[in-house]
Design a protein that fits this description.
This protein has about 475 residues and is α+β, with helices and mostly antiparallel strands. The protein is built from twelve helices and 18 strands. Strands 1, 8, 9, 10, 11, 17 and 18 form a seven-stranded antiparallel sheet that branches. A three-stranded antiparallel sheet has the order 2-4-5. Strand 6 and strand 7 form a beta hairpin. Mean pLDDT is about 85; it is low at about 1-45, about 70-80 and about 80-95.
Length: about 475
């Protein structure tokens, strides 16, 4: 930075120059009159010039010091600005994230959160069920005893949150990627390969919890394409995307409905709002039947017009939500979506899949189409097997899936071949259970939404909640 003189300093210099010029002129006149004074006057002139030079050098030195001081200040300011930017960027990444996800997503979620602290889901108060004191429910937030219980289970909470973050990032990508004209196999394979990358699949320690459901229209659940299925997604389809992820058996069960034709908006909205009502009604000590009542009331308040005819959105009464256990997608408790059902109460540290299905048909489903979903019976004890092929297939199932659900495509991916007879034998003996597609009447349309909730001692956490739903 160059030093710049002020106007006062310039004026002062000009006055000095004028006075010096007058003095020199006076000396020259005196010289002609008195040569003896010449030497003395010349000394005076030289001294004045040295003083001027000295003054200029001093000014230059001061200017240099000023520039150096300004440079130091600039460097300090620049350093502070860099620190602020760095801090801002760190905060922007959020919750300990070390880097941003790629598009499409390829970086495992564990690498995005190297400190092991994964994002919390939506935090809500426990609902006030029948016979529950309102103050008791609200005091859970501030109770030191409940907070201590929360801290005891942080390792479990982090596992389920990691699985939830994988689910969120996978579905965010897939929701925008899926288009009419794609085959159902193409959709499932893209979704599953994305989720496997993000969860860093590791045998039974981390991976997919069950096959990707992509049931269309009147088919409500448990459909995934088998090899050779040429079904294509169409513009007028209503498709339910239902997939799960897990870390050490802590399962996220979460689903949404995709549609492209806006005429199904009312149907999809009604089912989504019913799911939210079920989540809101849930909580520690809440009766399961009370959740069903809340769901039915909201869902049946919606209507949808299709081809000039009005249809009430009906809850599918023989489909339910359910409790979730380690490596067990259905852990024993059922969450109805209609009035009635179990009076059993929800308890602390239980996981639940709050899922609702709405239909324009009868509101009841039955088995139909080729079976694709299978799962080893969780409670089945040792069963002697005579067929060698059955023993080999069971070994493949135990090694790759344990008690988690699987499909025929996954058996083939694990290396099984010519397994049809062996699989039938395992099903006949009750070692493995078959879960065929569940369908309402043909020509009807069904929709589904689902979230996994965790009933912590202090609060209710909707762990699978995202920006989308």
């Amino acid at each position: 930075m160059a030093a710049v003189k002020t106007s006062d300093e310039l004026a002062k210099d000009e006055n000095v120059e004028n006075s010096e010029e007058e003095e020199i002129n006076g000396l020259e006149e005196a010289e002609t009159k008195d040569p003896a004074k010449k030497k003395k006057k010349k000394k005076k002139k030289k001294k004045t010039e040295n003083e001027i030079i000295g003054d200029e050098q001093t000014e230059v030195q001061h200017a240099k010091e000023k520039v150096q001081a300004l440079s130091v200040d600039d460097n300090v300011a620049e350093g502070e600005e860099k620190k602020k930017k760095k801090k801002k960027n760190k905060n922007k990444s959020g919750k300990g994230a070390a880097m941003e996800q790629t598009d499409p997503p390829t970086i495992p979620v564990a690498e995005l959160y190297p400190d092991g602290n994964f994002p919390e889901g939506q935090i809500m108060e426990h609902s006030i069920g029948e016979g529950i004191d309102e103050r008791t429910a609200k005091d859970r937030f501030s109770s030191e005893e409940k907070r201590a219980l929360d801290r005891l289970h942080q390792d479990i909470y982090q596992e389920i949150r990691q699985a939830a973050e994988v689910h969120r990032q996978t579905r965010k990508y897939i929701r925008d990627w899926i288009k009419p004209g794609m085959s159902m196999i193409q959709i499932c394979e893209e979704l599953e390969s994305t989720a496997r990358r993000l969860i860093k699949e590791d045998g039974l320690k981390a991976g997919l919890a069950f096959p990707t459901g992509c049931s269309r229209n009147h088919c409500a659940a448990h459909y995934t394409p088998n090899t050779g299925d040429a079904t294509v997604l169409e513009y007028d389809d209503v498709v339910k995307i239902d997939f799960g992820t897990h870390i050490n058996g802590r399962i996220i069960d979460c689903a949404f409905t995709l549609h492209f034709n806006p005429r199904y908006d009312a149907l999809v909205k009604g089912v989504q709002e019913a799911t939210e009502a079920g989540i809101k009604a849930s909580g520690v000590d809440v009766r399961l039947c009370d959740v069903g009542t809340a769901v039915q009331e909201v869902m049946e308040s919606h209507e949808v017009e299709l081809d000039g005819q009005m249809y009430q959105v009906k809850p599918i009464r023989n489909l339910n939500g359910h409790s979730i256990g380690p490596y067990r997608i259905h852990a024993g408790k059922t969450v109805p979506i209609v009035k009635g059902g179990e009076t059993t109460r929800m308890e602390e540290n239980e996981f639940y899949a709050i899922e609702t299905f709405g239909s324009t048909g009868r509101g009841q489903v039955h088995d139909d189409m080729d079976c694709s979903h299978y799962m080893k019976n969780f409670d089945q004890q040792f069963v002697p097997l005579r067929l060698q092929s059955s023993k080999q297939l069971l070994n493949v199932i135990n090694k790759n899936f344990g008690t988690l659900a699987f499909c025929k495509r996954w058996l083939e991916r694990a290396g099984a071949s010519r397994y049809a007879m062996a699989l039938k034998d395992l099903c006949d003996k009750g070692v493995v259970d078959a879960y065929p597609p569940l369908c309402d009447v043909k020509g009807s349309y069904t929709a589904q939404f689902e979230h996994t909730i965790l009933l912590r001692p202090t609060c209710k956490e909707v762990v699978s909640r995202g920006d989308d739903y």
